[in-house]
Write a structure and sequence with these properties.
The chain has 754 residues and is mainly beta. The N terminus is likely disordered. Helix 5 packs across helix 6. The radius of gyration is 26 Å and the shape is globular. The protein has a 22-stranded antiparallel β-barrel. The protein has a 5-stranded mixed beta sheet with strand order 3-8-9-6-7, with no helix packed on it. The protein has a 3-stranded antiparallel beta sheet with strand order 15-37-36, with no helix packed on it. It contains 6 helices and 38 strands.
Length: 754
């Protein structure tokens, strides 16, 4: 089997003629550019990025996993402003946002693993870390990526070093640490769609041993539609306004000891994200036929009246028109070089977050199915780490990890289902404890092997109240698992590195997010005719139970490194097997909007390619991912992995023109492609949840004078105004069509440093 040929044929069949033209023209452009350059200076040749993916500094070529890294100072040039944008440029990564209509939610899917929901009883399959601190909740994670040192995207289960909810992968955000340099940076953006963005970064040495840095940011963008039946709505549909700040202080009294204290906060407000509701296509008895609590027959024209477009919203419920999120964090990182061989590290953090959001599911002026919602979570984490050298050829990383999270979600007085009262009260406390060790041994100058073990124990205490007559249902469970990793690296004569890795991953079980199945059980056990007996029966045996451990085993081989002085390449082939993986399945039941877990076995296999060409004034990045996901048949139908494209592609050529006098103009374009996918775990055409493929194009033209005093740039993001579905969900009565908030934008960016 010729894998390269098969992937090429698939690529050609998936892409539009325009995309194929771009893909074929870019190498031609590079050839022309190379021909024009006789010799590249040392300053123009790129350097390998040093990463900490294995919790030890390594050149990216040496890490035996599939890894993409982004230089924080170059994110804006690529059109990357938040984590959603990162998802456009990494192989087999798709980042979506759904989460009760919030605009700040991040839902990453890597190699077919992710989570579309956000409630406290759910856990993501891809973990996000900021400076080594795990972020437990997805709402509010769409960080404004200003003054970031780098971003690392680790693909595949990270079961030993990143054990917390990383069966699909992990995303590391590393911020800039204070140092003795005195620098002030100002970045501003003004653009269409009311874009106003300002960012201030200050780094200053206060003494020989103390330094600090500070980052303040404001980011605003107008919406895409209006709330046509709520004239007093504070925000438009999709409007966003965010303020954030971060302050770090570093104390380094000696070369052997350093301590960094960081406080961060962000406040986000805006309008409900764009979405629409498809009613006619489903033709249900409750909506289309009027068999609801209001006795109203609904149509698509009630959602989008004549004269309006699908980015307008026809809700009559003011409580769902606005969204907000707040987050506060405090972390302390302490490192002590015990001697030349050993370093101890402690990362302690406390974080709080809260949000307000919600959807009007019928999308009309009628108060039928509306779910305003609030949530909050408090988390504490501590990681103790020891790394160093056992001897000159053997190094290790070992640690202890503790995580505790308490959170809740509430849908209260403003909520309704079928025109009547609706109740959802979820609470959960999670405690996770782990111990891990990872050892790497250089057998020869060319060959090294590594292995790791991690023991994790998770405990969850959860409760749900969805029906006042039934009261609160409580449950508790615990899980434990040993995860492991074996890997080998070999450096070839040409400097390229080959690796082979077998690694396992684990995630604790999860409780159902919206257990309205309890109401059906209550009435099935006698209901109000025998209320005491019904309550006792439901409490003794009910649907609010957690799933089993989720486990994963990943087999991966790859080659990475510098082919020559101009070209970097990384290619990985993987096969990952998941057991007891819960897919979320939502439907409308008699009691409400019910979300249950469909437990499946899944195999993800594929190939990923990253290249970076840097020759003289020309550079180009390319990433390609192709994946086939096979899910075990369930009750007569074949599920599919939701929100998982089988083909991903990104191309980013850049050329710098040197002008007389030393001025320069840098021209960059970025193309991103995601093939079609499904919004739920089924590909049945009658479900109508297929999401079409999307192609996004950005450009950036920047001028910098010879003295580097400033840079001014013209930018365009999504320049062809590609409008695409972010998610789709068929409940049986209607289809929620979640629209992208990613319209075209053109503007000017100014940055200066002094």
């Amino acid at each position: 089997m010729n894998t390269t040929t098969d992937v090429s044929k698939t690529l050609a069949s998936k892409l539009s003629p325009v995309a194929l033209a771009v893909a074929m023209t870019v190498p031609a452009m590079s050839t022309t550019a190379i021909a024009q350059e006789v010799e590249a200076s040392e300053e123009q040749k790129f350097e390998a990025i040093t990463v900490t993916a294995t919790k030890r500094p390594q050149v990216i070529y040496e890490v035996p996993i599939a890894l993409s890294a982004f230089d924080g100072d170059k994110l804006a040039e690529q059109g990357i402003t938040d984590l959603t944008d990162v998802g456009k440029f990494v192989p087999n990564l798709n980042v979506t946002g759904f989460s009760a209509g919030h605009t700040s939610s991040v839902n990453p899917f890597i190699r077919g693993i992710g989570l579309q929901d956000h409630l406290i009883t759910t856990d993501p399959g891809v973990s996000v870390y900021v400076d080594g601190v795990y972020l437990g909740r997805q709402v509010g994670q769409n960080w404004s990526l200003n003054n970031i040192e780098r971003i690392e995207v680790l693909r595949g289960p990270q079961g030993t070093l990143y054990g917390r909810n990383s069966i699909g992968g992990a995303i590391n955000i590393i911020t800039k640490e204070p140092d003795q340099g005195d620098v002030t940076k100002i970045n501003t953006e003004f653009g269409t769609r009311g874009r106003v963005k300002a960012d201030l970064f200050v780094n200053h040495g206060l003494s020989d041993t103390v330094a600090f840095n500070m980052n303040l940011s404001f980011n605003k963008r107008d919406g895409l539609g209006e709330f046509i039946n709520v004239p007093n709505a504070e925000y438009d549909v999709g409007e966003t306004e965010d303020m954030s700040g971060r302050v770090s202080v570093k104390w380094e009294p000696s070369n052997d000891f350093r301590m960094v204290l960081t406080a961060d906060a962000n406040n986000g407000d805006g309008g409900l994200r764009p979405y629409t509701v498809l009613i006619d296509e489903v033709g249900s008895a409750r909506y289309f036929g009027g068999g609801n609590g209001l006795g109203v027959e609904l149509r698509n024209t009630d959602v989008i009246p004549a004269g309006y477009d699908r980015y307008d919203n026809a809700t009559g419920t003011e409580a769902v028109t606005g969204v907000s999120n707040e987050a506060r964090g405090l972390s302390l990182t302490t490192e002590w070089d015990i001697n030349e061989d050993y370093t101890a590290k402690v990362v302690a953090s406390q974080r709080t977050s809260k949000y307000k959001a919600g959807l009007d599911d019928d999308g009309t002026i009628y108060s039928l199915d509306q779910f305003p919602e609030r949530g909050e979570a408090d988390q504490t984490s501590i990681e103790l780490q020891l790394n160093g050298y056992i001897n000159e050829r053997t190094d290790f990383v070992a640690g202890l990890y503790y995580f505790n999270e308490e959170g809740s979600n509430r849908q209260g007085d403003d909520s309704s289902f079928d025109g009547g009262a609706n109740l959802l009260a979820l609470d959960q406390e999670t405690t996770s404890k782990a111990a891990y060790v990872n050892v790497r041994r250089e057998l020869t100058d060319e060959l090294s092997v590594s292995g790791g073990l991690r023991y994790t124990k998770d405990e969850k205490d959860a409760s749900a109240n969805v029906f006042s007559a039934l009261g609160t249902i409580y449950d508790a469970n615990e899980w434990d698992e040993v995860t492991w990793e074996l890997a080998t690296n070999y450096t070839f004569e040409n400097g390229m590195t080959g690796y082979a890795t077998i690694q396992s991953g684990y995630q604790s079980g999860q409780y159902p997010a919206r257990p309205y199945c309890l109401i059906g059980e209550f009435f099935g056990a006698g209901g109000f005719g025998d209320i005491d007996g019904a309550q006792a029966a439901v409490r003794a045996n009910n649907c609010f139970t957690a799933s089993d451990n989720i486990t994963a085993i990943n087999y991966e081989v790859g080659v990475k490194g510098r082919i020559n002085e101009y070209l970097d390449m990384s290619v990985a082939v993987f096969n990952t097997e998941f057991e007891d993986l819960p897919y979320q399945v939502s439907r409308v039941s008699e009691g409400g909007f019910d979300t249950a877990n469909l437990v499946v076995e899944q195999t993800s296999r594929g190939i990923e390619l990253d290249t970076t060409l840097n020759y003289g004034n020309f550079s180009m990045m390319t990433s390609v991912g192709y994946m086939d996901v096979d899910v075990e048949e369930q009750a007569g139908f074949n599920p599919v992995a939701p929100l998982t494209p089988d083909l991903t592609l990104a191309i980013g050529p850049q050329y710098t023109f040197e002008l007389d006098g030393g001025d320069s103009i840098r021209v960059r374009a970025d193309y991103s492609y995601r093939s079609d996918m499904y919004g739920e775990p089924t590909s049945a055409p009658e479900r109508m949840t297929k999401l079409d493929s999307r192609e996004l194009v950005n450009f950036d033209i920047a001028y910098t004078p010879a003295n580097d005093a400033y840079t001014v740039a013209l930018y365009g993001r999504n320049i062809f105004d590609e409008r695409y579905d972010n998610a789709r969900l068929n409940t049986g009565d209607y289809i929620l069509q979640i629209l992208s908030n990613d319209a075209s934008e053109f503007g000017v960016r100014f940055s200066t440093e002094f």
